[in-house]
Structures are given as structure tokens and as C-alpha cells.
Specification:
Elements (H helix, E strand, L loop, with lengths): L15 H34 L12 E4 L5 H17 L3 E4 L9 H10 L4 E5 L16 E4 L18 E5 L2 H9 L7 E3 L6
Parallel strand pairs: 1-2, 1-3, 3-4, 4-5, 5-6
Helix pairs in contact: 1-3
Length: 192
């Protein structure tokens, strides 16, 4: 679930020579780490795709995932977890609140471990994640006020994708990106 470091910062404990050696070792080991992560993602995606379609149970399994580390997103994920717990629904939360929860492998693992019947992307666009999931698995991208969906032009949307947005302006923006009208839901702020 870890991402590889994008850069190394000298903190004074290492000489420039030691920092250079560490950087070289990381660069040499990166391809192996990336290969292991890719194998993990492929294995999890294959495991998930092997699930047959099933009707939504009375107490579904919910995976709440995000790529957004904003404190509001992390806090909202905790509130959702409490609500799901009170409902007695199986759930797994994977938000980037720790280094091991930043890679797509960690999010896929959350979906697989709870045997999710619904995947909720909080303040994140599922984008490249959708092809890794079974076509019939409901995916909801829920954006809170102040968080705008960033949709790549020409992106494909699965039939099981829904988008919840806080305002009509956000709904129009999502619709202009090509998301079908009937997949967009207005979800204004409320109290929990």
C-alpha cells in the first residue's frame, strides 16, 4: 500500500554522499517494488472480478476509499465508519491517513476484505479504479462542499457509477464532463 518516495530531503543526519547512495539504492529497488505492487493489484482485481453479480443485501458491505488526505475528508470518513457500525453493516475504510493506505493496492484490498457490495469514493474520482472492479459493483463518488470532481476528458464511466455532488453548479460541471445525467445526484450538506 505504500507509494515510493518522489524525492529525498537532507535532514542533516546524512552526508550528501550518504544521501546520494540512499537515492541510488532506492532507484535500483524501485522497479522491483513497482512490479510487486502491480502483481498485488492484478491479483486483487482478478479476485474481485471473479465475484458474480448478486442483489444488494439488507446489510451490505461498504468500502469507503479516498485519495484525498484533506482533514475534512478524513474526518468525514470516520463519521461514515461510525454510522456504518451503528447500522451493523460490514465496512472497511481506506483513506490516506497512513503511508500504507496511499497506493491503489490498499484501496483494492479494502474492497476485497469487506467483500464490498458498494464502493464509496469520498472526495475522489474513481477514474482508473473502475476497470479494476466488477462491472456490476455499485460505485459512488461523493463530493462534499468545497471539493470539486476532477474528471479526465474522454474518461469512460461504468454503468454502475453514481456521482453525488453538493450543489447544482457541481452537478452541471460533472454533467459537462460527460457523466450521464441519470448518474448524478444532488446531495446538499446536512447534519449527522
Amino acid at each position: 500500500g505504500y507509494l515510493l518516495p518522489a524525492r529525498l530531503l537532507p535532514l542533516g543526519q546524512l552526508s550528501l554522499g550518504e544521501l546520494g547512495e540512499l537515492k541510488e539504492r532506492l532507484e535500483r529497488s524501485a522497479p522491483a517494488a513497482v512490479a510487486v505492487q502491480a502483481k498485488c493489484v492484478a491479483s486483487l482485481a482478478e479476485r474481485l472480478k471473479g465475484r458474480s453479480g448478486r442483489p444488494l443485501p439488507a446489510s451490505p458491505g461498504v468500502a469507503v476509499v479516498s485519495t484525498d488526505a484533506h482533514p475534512a475528508t478524513l474526518g468525514h470518513a470516520r463519521r461514515i465508519a461510525r454510522a456504518l457500525h451503528q447500522l451493523g453493516w460490514r465496512h472497511e475504510i481506506c483513506v490516506p491517513d497512513a503511508p500504507g493506505k496511499c497506493h491503489v493496492a490498499a484501496r483494492l484490498s479494502a474492497v476485497a476484505s469487506v467483500e464490498a457490495d458498494i464502493v464509496l469514493f469520498l472526495n475522489s474520482w474513481p477514474g482508473a479504479f473502475i476497470p479494476l472492479l466488477p462491472a456490476n459493483l455499485p460505485v459512488v463518488a461523493w463530493f462534499l462542499p468545497g471539493f470539486e470532481p476532477r474528471i479526465t476528458a474522454g474518461e469512460r464511466f461504468g454503468d454502475s457509477l453514481s456521482v453525488a455532488v453538493p450543489s447544482r453548479a457541481a452537478a452541471e460541471s460533472v454533467r459537462a464532463s460527460g457523466v450521464p445525467h441519470d448518474a448524478i445526484f444532488l446531495c446538499p450538506p446536512a447534519a449527522d
